[in-house]
Amino acid sequence: MAIEGVINIMLSLVFIGLSFWALQAFRFDLFLSEAKGGRARLLQVFLAIFIGHGVARFFTDYYGWTQMLRQFFV
Fold it and tell me: What is the pTM of this model?
């Protein structure tokens, strides 16, 4: 149980980091008046958290579903 918690935390942090890295390629200056300002960076961090958590949740859910499928063959 504790190992699963650590794995979920690590997956979330990894995917948040990857999302933040991927969002660096997005051109925020087309949509925001101050693309280099503090509010734009905060928006970028929030988007990275939102996307990264969603992706990590997908992988943890998928792993859980595959574990449930084992019960078909028991």
Answer: 0.83
